[in-house]
Amino acid sequence: MPPATWRSDLSVPTRHSVWWVADALHGDGACWSEALAGLEGSCVAFIDSGVLAAWPGLAERLHAVVKQTAPHLTLCAVDTMPGGEPCKDGLHHAERVARACFDHGVSRRGCVIAIGGGAVLDAAGFGASMAHRGVPLVRVPTTTLAQDDSAMGVKSGVNAFNQKNALGAFGAAHAVICCERLLTTLPLEHWLGGFSEAVKIALLKDPDMLAQLERTAPAIRARDMHAAQPMIRRSAELHREHILRGGDPFEQGSARPLDHGHWAAHRLEAMSAWQVPHGQAVAIGIALDACIATEMGMLEPAIRERILHLLHALGLPTNHSLLQPVDRLLAGLEQFRQHLGGRLAIPLITRPGSFQETHQMPANAVTAAVSVLARHAV
Ligand SMILES: NC(=O)c1ccc[n+]([C@@H]2O[C@H](COP(=O)([O-])OP(=O)(O)OC[C@H]3O[C@@H](n4cnc5c(N)ncnc54)[C@H](O)[C@@H]3O)[C@@H](O)[C@H]2O)c1
Ligand SMILES: [Zn+2]
Description:
The protein is α/β, with parallel strands linked by helices. Helix content is 47%, strand content 16%. The protein folds into 2 domains: 18-185, Rossmann fold; 188-376, Up-down Bundle (Dehydroquinate synthase-like, alpha domain). The longest helix has 21 residues, at 225-245. The termini are far apart. The mean pLDDT is 95.
């Protein structure tokens, strides 16, 4: 036989559906019947332990809601998953989800329902993606960060080898249900943390949103839902648009604007043994990148001041003792370069709504930026 090359493009149509409701478990049932339509057989659910502590009757409510809205589905088990980063510590909890699919006969026509913060959605999502090579996932994000960023994404994963999201998968959720009421029990630190991703996306893409965040920061900090909701939803919309229309949903290229501020954030999370929450780490990462951009002559000092001021107004940190000495932090640049597949590409803000990728980050600019942050700390 002569040698041969067979080459074709393959595209798989994928739907990305998101519902925004006031109260998903007590009243807004229509979202469930729409979200679960087309699924059948068995399903299982995993609820964040923090959410369950705040909403003790949630498992029973979920049983009732699935029964009422999706007669073609049987919710076989509702299990708990430790909230926050502990559920992403290695494969253990993701594997529990995959095992539950086999124990309860959940097929690729059924689903895993995950209710919780970004960490639980990541671990449960990865478990679902491993079972039968992909059981549909229904995400119910319960933090500001999960609603305004992570639940819109097409990624899941867990931490391993002392590195953030070292193991994971790409794939869109079958449905995302964002419920306003569930946010009311979120601890303040995590309520505030989600707005760092809103600041990030506003800096990258939307100067009007940035101005609105500046105007409403005190109200957001005071947990005024009327001020917060439009910002959560706008952030989610911009993240979603970027993923769906940006041309690279599975991050095969090296251009990753949504990773603005994240090289340092991920490093700081790991250096702190996951004690610094993702949202707070991103706030520090955004502040650091703004200072680096100014050191490199890419961003006016006045805009840097505006960014630091907004983060402070939102009750977010811009400094951490682990940033110094900078050697350990700088190792994060090398990890980020490897993660990107060879060439470093860091998106730096040049003015509100605009950014530029830099392929080099001089150590002296990082050192100077860390000193600026230490002086600005509140
Ligand atoms: N997959 C992605 O695209 C993506 C994007 C961004 C972030 N993430 C990941 O998301 C994680 C951070 O998620 P997060 O900021 O949502 O926080 P989290 O999941 O770490 O949760 C924070 C804490 O809040 C508790 N909690 C959650 N919702 C609650 C509620 N409604 N009431 C009471 N307590 C509640 C949890 O139990 C936990 O203790 C990180 O692991 C990050 O890497 C993933
Ligand atoms: Zn993030």
